[in-house]
Amino acid sequence: MVKIAVAGGSGQVGQEVIDALAAAKKHEIVILSRNKAVTGDSASGVTWLAVNYDDKSQLIEALRGIHTVLSFTQVMDYTPQENLIDAAIAAGVKRFAPSQWGSASTIGMPWWAGKDKIKEYLEKVNENGKVLEYSLFQPGLFLDYLATPYKTAKYLEPLNTMIDFQNRRAIVVDGYDAIMTYTTVKDLAAVVARAADLDGEWPVVGGIRGNRVPVSQILKIGEKVRETTGRAFTVDKVKLGDLERGILTASWTLEASHPSVTGDQVEEMLKTVLIGTLLSSAKGAWDVSDEFNQLLPDFKFTQIEEFLAQVWEGKP
């Protein structure tokens, strides 16, 4: 048993992972939060601790005796995570997982630039010899998003993407059959819980490959599991060059956004995210590796067609 600190533990993905860790009943979990939550305190082996991410001395004290830190902090402001890394090193933390939890690269996705900053920072702190073991957990896109508007996880909320099963439509980049990795958030959480038990060193790149499929195959699955509607998928094709110039020619756009984006930002952010997701898919960002699959060969991932057939059975 070790002590695991979860930073940003009140977020959707963080809560999914916390539940998986708590269910395993193998470790003591400390949830770091800017505002101490009133929920979860009674859960076995789970405690909450309010912290100020701008106060390194407070962070160091919070991390004393901690073996592993899992970060789910917002990536748009990367300074708090840098402070968390510095505090982890000062407190003697062994393992650190930065706030990645997505694609293999951030190409075409400027809103995730903070992920690259943190990756570079971790490389820098270890440039003269390893002082902190870390892994970039990368599960690709959450398979749950293809179930939108239906919720398939306890905390993760539905989110629109470039492939819309509800309205039987998709946007693809003309001339590119992008390879996508889809993993359910439940499987991600289970893998993280298993990874916490591993005795060996974590891989720096921690790919988690639930399903590796080309977009064309996803659309075929869509036609199959939505065949009861009697309507084929409508596919809009957009040009890579247009996307690179910030031009979106598709007949529709995203309708839901992350709760961290509000007000006047929403419309522009939805366009930026859709363009970026299409660009990044064409450039291979969502074709993640399988390091944790290899470390956990007995783990059975939820398969895309079975999952979607169950979700969409009988749906209008």
Strand content: 15-25%
The gyration radius over C-alpha positions equals 20 Å
Parts with pLDDT < 50 across at least 5 consecutive residues: none
Name the CATH superfamily classification of the largest domain: NAD(P)-binding Rossmann-like Domain
The CATH topology of the largest domain is given as Rossmann fold
Overall mean pLDDT score?
A: 93
Give the SSE order as H and E letters.
EHEEHEHEHEEEEEEHEEHEHHHH
The first-level CATH class of the largest domain is given as Alpha Beta
Helical residues, percent: 25-40%
CATH architecture assignment name of the largest domain: 3-Layer(aba) Sandwich
Q: How many β strands by DSSP? A: 14
Shape verdict: globular
Q: Helical element count?
A: 10
Biggest sheet features: 6 strands, parallel
Textual characterization of the structure:
The chain has 2 domains: 3-134, NAD(P)-binding Rossmann-like Domain (Rossmann fold, 3-Layer(aba) Sandwich), CATH 3.40.50; 142-182 and 212-287 and 302-312, UDP-galactose 4-epimerase, domain 1. Helices cover 34% and strands 17% of the residues. The chain has helices at 12-24, 56-63, 79-91, 113-125, 185-195, 215-225, 240-244, 265-282, 291-295, 304-312; strands at 3-7, 28-33, 46-50, 68-71, 95-97, 133-134, 136-138, 141-142, 163-164, 169-173, 179-183, 205-207, 211-214, 234-238. The strands form 4 sheets. Strands 3-2-1-4-5-6 form a 6-stranded parallel β-sheet, sandwiched between helices. A 3-stranded mixed β-sheet has the order 8-11-13. Strand 9 and strand 10 form a beta hairpin. Helix 1 crosses helix 5 (185-195). The model has no long low-confidence stretch (mean pLDDT 93).
